[in-house]
Design brief:
Strand 44 and strand 45 (about 445-450) form a beta hairpin. The strands form 8 sheets. This protein has a 22-stranded mixed β-sheet that branches. Strands 9-13-17-22-26-31 form a 6-stranded parallel β-sheet, with no helix packed on it. A 4-stranded parallel β-sheet has the order 7-10-14-18, with no helix packed on it. The chain is built from 4 helices and 45 strands. Helix content is about 10%, strand content about 40%. The longest helix has 17 residues, at about 1-20. It folds into 2 domains: about 1-325, Pectate Lyase C-like, CATH 2.160.20.110; about 380-450, Sandwich (Immunoglobulin-like). It is mostly beta strands.
């Protein structure tokens, strides 16, 4: 009896210890999330998940409070991350080279990841992506990847390397994707029963495999086979798509490449990127949209080259889609994107500047491009934690705040406060991205926040 009691107490102690790791604040609830405010916080999260087992942090919430740089640790190498991670519009710069499933999250199950950007480089021999290397039953939304993604022997994708039964919406990738395995895609490399909607890719997606022991599949949005059916809707691809397989000794394997996805259920999607598929150097299964006639209401530019040749099609349900006069300029037109793709420019998207690195394409409303606030004294934001939740702005600092101003994306002051408290009600402001400027007298900080009610 005593032995059983000791075992029960030990289990309770270990369970409480797993989640007793300290972060920059918060208790892990939806209204009081764990605050990830430093590289140390992120490494603590990674260590806790990686030292655990099964699905870690299920029902727990995390909130990123600033951009982080030089991250070399993967969250979820053996166990799975299963919490809710809100990037709050910030970006994490990765420099990862490993032999495990790799991305910010290596393994994720039943997780929600939102409002997050990834930059840098991610390389692995396993499933590799910017947000997740291997994900199952996850929701990923309002995220982007600018990192270069490379898997030497497995799935590679801008958002997910493998995304099984995942719902990926309102995401984009501009990083180049390379794979030496079987699957590669601009958004998801491979995914069984995945749903991808309202996404785009501009990065080049390429797969080159020698002596592979299976067929290979590459797509501008997703690299999916018939056994890993993916559903893609309201998406567009600009990047070049290339698949090359040289299966010495394996004559039954093939190379498949599609401008959107080589296989799957594809609807209302557009492609202007060239597509190449080679099997031992000979043109193989390829299409401007897919490799089979399972598409619906899909279009491609007549200038798209398929294995080096321009083709023509009048059938929007065919693997090549219907000819349509498309160029990057149509995707730079907000009215066209709203009308033809149905994207939400009130709450999710806005258009970038044509002179920016995003080439005038849609970006998220939380992203800030060269905003001038009229504030000259902007210092490091590492000395203070600022975040918002349900219209309340929280300022974690031990210093006395003398003055605070908040600016909208046009640089117009939307509020000024003298000697404010550490919790300020901003629920009267419209949802959106703002710059918060705080003066402590001799020092000041500024930081972007998302007001969402």
């Amino acid at each position: 009896m005593k032995t059983k009691l000791l075992l029960v107490l030990l289990v309770i102690f270990m369970s409480s210890t797993i989640y007793s790791q300290t972060y920059s604040g918060g208790t892990g609830t939806e209204t009081d999330p764990y605050l990830i405010s430093s590289k140390t916080d992120l490494e603590t999260l990674a260590q806790t998940v990686n030292n655990g087992s099964g699905n870690m942090y299920a029902g727990k919430y995390f909130s990123l409070t600033q951009d982080l740089y030089g991250i070399t640790t993967v969250i979820g190498t053996s166990a799975n991350f299963s919490g809710v991670f809100n990037g709050n519009g910030y970006a994490i710069d990765l420099n990862i080279n490993t032999s495990t499933n790799a991305g910010l999250f290596g393994n994720a199950v039943n997780a929600t990841i939102e409002n997050l950007g990834i930059t840098g480089n991610v390389t692995s021999s396993k499933s590799t992506g910017g947000i997740c290397g291997w994900a199952n039953l996850c929701t990923i939304m309002n995220c982007y990847n600018e990192a270069t993604i490379s898997s030497t022997a497995s799935d590679a994708g801008g958002i997910c390397g493998y995304g099984g039964s995942c719902n990926i919406s309102n995401c984009y990738n501009i990083g180049n994707i390379t794979s030496g395995g079987s699957y590669a895609g601009g958004i998801s490399g491979c995914g069984s029963s995945a749903i991808i909607a309202n996404c785009y890719n501009t990065g080049n997606v390429s797969l080159s495999s020698i002596n592979n022991t299976s067929s290979v599949y590459v797509g501008g949005i997703a690299g999916s086979s018939g056994s890993y059916t993916v559903t893609v809707s309201n998406c567009f691809n600009i990047g070049e798509v290339t698949s090359s397989l040289n299966p010495s000794g394996y004559t039954e394997f093939k190379s498949y490449a599609g401008g959107i996805s080589p296989m799957g259920n594809i609807s209302n999607s557009y492609n202007i990127g060239n597509v190449t598929s080679l099997l031992k150097g000979v043109p193989s299964n390829v299409g401007r949209i897919s490799t089979w006639d399972m598409s619906n209401n899909c279009y491609a530019s007549p200038s798209v080259l398929v294995n080096g040749n321009a083709i023509s099609s009048s059938n929007s349900s065919s693997k090549d889609g219907q000819d349509l006069d498309l160029s990057i300029s149509v995707f730079q037109n907000q009215s066209w994107v709203e009308t033809n793709l149905g994207w939400d420019f009130s709450n999710v998207w806005k258009m970038s500047e044509t002179t920016s690195s995003k080439d005038g394409l849609p970006i998220f409303i939380y992203q800030i491009e060269d905003i001038s606030t009229g504030v000259d004294n902007i210092k490091s934001k590492n000395e203070i934690t600022i975040y918002s939740h349900s219209g309340i702005l929280y300022i974690n600092t031990e210093d006395k705040i003398e003055m605070m101003k908040i600016y909208n994306q046009s640089g117009v002051c939307a509020g000024s406060y003298i000697n404010p408290t550490n919790q300020i009600n901003l629920s009267s402001l419209p949802n959106g991205v703002y710059i918060v400027y705080i003066s402590f007298g001799k020092k000041s900080v500024s930081q972007k926040v998302i007001i969402s009610k």
